[in-house]
């Protein structure tokens, strides 16, 4: 079965893990710190805090933004549930915004409609890896509203020549098993503010001011002492995952380059068959985590492709329709219409040209009999 996603791991990652496993330190320690420094350097951002997921990063980000009961936070409805759950963790209200029909990124026009005096923050998602125009969004929401970028799909994407997530807002990355930079599970919170960096490092480690690695420094006096200035969580990265991340980071641009080649092939072969996603522009370069087509008879096509050994996905069922968690929400017509047509095709760096061709041929074959 051809999967939709597949991590691209090799001997270097295996060796890196072996080195950590035999080092005597496998928890939060020097590899995590090294990954943080290298990831921040890669983005050209001052501070990164490594966590166990993007969900944790979004959770801490809403804390840093001071979101609390009575506040509203705008989120796009087409995203993974973590984006909206992070608002609920704070006891605040998620206000769902519709998406742009072409890109499936948050609709700025709908954001304008959803802004209110209670809006504390907004969490735009760079859907599929395609950057939203963060500078324009800032003009739309103004200085009063904190922008928390959900960059889970956008590791390595760029925007006006700079990496997505480096703009100076709070940015949240995922290194989950099938993300562009994969570690099994992992995440990062990126910030330009030293104060937020400091606090996020405490919050990931139960609110304790000094982690065990720092306290293990042989030159430290009273190494057993620490303070607990606030209640935090247990959501830091560990050195085993970080070691994988250090290797993956070196390969990230090349892996994303291969994704771009696959995208070029798909779009060339499918342009006249289904609706293909918009191409990159010189200013907006997607990380192509997802290759999302829009098509007629989506469900039948999915079943047909599966019968031919090709898995596909639907990213995502609009969250505002999960009424058990979110109650009855106002209609979001674009998302509700597009949800019936979207299909994610297989895309991963190790995918071979003939596999891409095979997917396209099967799609053409399906439509030729319809
Ligand atoms: C848009 C988006 N945000 C957040 C997350 C959460 O990431 P993680 O699995 O690292 O918690 C995901 C995961 O797929 C995602 O797609």
Labels describing this entry:
370 residues, alpha/beta, Aspartate Aminotransferase, domain 1, 2 domains, globular, binds pyridoxal-5'-phosphate
Q: What do these coordinates show?
A:
- The protein has 370 residues and is an alpha/beta fold.
- The chain folds into two domains: 11-250, Aspartate Aminotransferase, domain 2; 253-368, Aspartate Aminotransferase, domain 1, CATH 3.90.1150.10.
- 38% of the residues lie in helices and 13% in strands.
- The protein is built from 13 helices and twelve strands.
- The strands form three sheets. Strands 1-9-8-5-4-2-3 form a seven-stranded mixed beta sheet, sandwiched between helices.
- Helix 1 (11-21) runs antiparallel to helix 9, helix 2 (30-43) packs parallel to helix 9 (239-270) and helix 9 crosses helix 13.
- The longest helix is centred in the C-terminal third of the chain and has 32 residues, at 239-270.
- The radius of gyration is 21 Å and the shape is globular.
- The two termini are 24 Å apart.
- Pyridoxal-5'-phosphate is lined by residues 53-55, 79-80, 82-83, 125, 150, 152-153, 174, 176, 187.
Can you summarize this structure?
With 370 residues, the chain is α/β, with parallel strands linked by helices. The chain is built from 13 helices and twelve strands.
Strand order of the largest sheet: 1-9-8-5-4-2-3
Count of DSSP E strands? 12
Q: What structural class is derived from the secondary structure elements? A: alpha/beta
**Topology-level CATH name of the largest domain:** Aspartate Aminotransferase, domain 2
Instruction: Give the N-to-C terminal Cα separation.
Output: 24 Å
What characteristic shape results from the CA principal axes?
globular
Indicate the percent of residues in helices: 25-40%
CATH class of the largest domain: Alpha Beta
Portion of residues in beta strands equals 5-15%
- List each distinct ligand once: pyridoxal-5'-phosphate
Average pLDDT works out at 97
